[in-house]
Amino acid sequence: MTLKAHQTLLLTGAAGGLGQVLRGRLKANCEVLRLSDRFDFGVAGAHEEIKLADLADAQAVNAMVQGVQAIVHLGGVSVESAFGPILQANILGVYNLYEAARLHGVKRVVFASSNHVTGFYRQSDTIDASHPPRPDSLYGVSKAFGEDLSRFYYDRYGIETACVRIGSSFAEPKDRRMLASWLSFDDLHRLITACLTTPVLGHSIVFGMSDNAVTWWDNRCARHIGYVPQDSSDVFRDAVYARTPAPDLNDPVVQFQGGGFVVAGPFGM
Fold it and tell me: What's the whole-model pTM score?
C-alpha cells in the first residue's frame, strides 16, 4: 500500500500526457490531490481540487501553491521549442514555483527534469549524477536551470527536491533508443512515491528509467531515495528490432543520448 505522506499534494501539468497518467495514481499518495494546468481540463473528481494557473503568472502560482505540503512539478514546455515559451514556462515559471513554495513553507518538491540535461553525452557513455550537464537543446538548458535553482532553494531555504531526469515514459518503447531510456508508467509512479516518502531527500538527482538491461545512466548517487524499478524494456526488444532499421552510426541522433533533440530547431524566439 502506498503511504499517504501528505494531506494535500499539488500536481502541475495535470492536463499533459504524464499528468494524465499520474492523476489517478497519485491519489494513493495523499488525502487531496490538487491539479493544475494553464487551461480548463474538466472538473475535479473525488479527493481532487483544481486550480488553474499560468506558471509565468506569479500571483496565480502563489495561489496554486498555498495550502499544499508537497509538489510534483510536471508543468511547462516539455519539448524543444522557441526560446520565448521556454523562458516563460520553464525558467520564469520554475522560479515562481519555488518562490511560492518558500513563501508557503512547502518543504518537498519532485521536479520533472529531463534526460535532455545530459543529451550530448554519447550513447557509449555511462554517466551518473556527478557528471556535469551537457544539454542537447534549449529545453535541456531550461531543465538544467531548474536543477540549479532547486539546489539554491535547498541550500538557502531547506526545500528538498528530487530532480527526476525522466527518460522516455510511454506505454512501451517506440524505438531502439528507448530500449535504454524507457520508463514505464508504473515505475514512474514508484519513483515519485519514493521521492515523496524517503525520510531524508536533500537535493538529489535521479535518472528516471526502468530496469532496462541496456542503459546509459547509473543511479548510484540516488540510492538513499529507495527507488526500485520493477519493469524492463527487455520484453519489447525483439519487437522493436523487428520494426526498426539498423542504426546509422554516423548519425548524431544515434551517436548521442539525446536522440532527435540534438538536431531539433532552431525555432527562433
Answer: 0.97
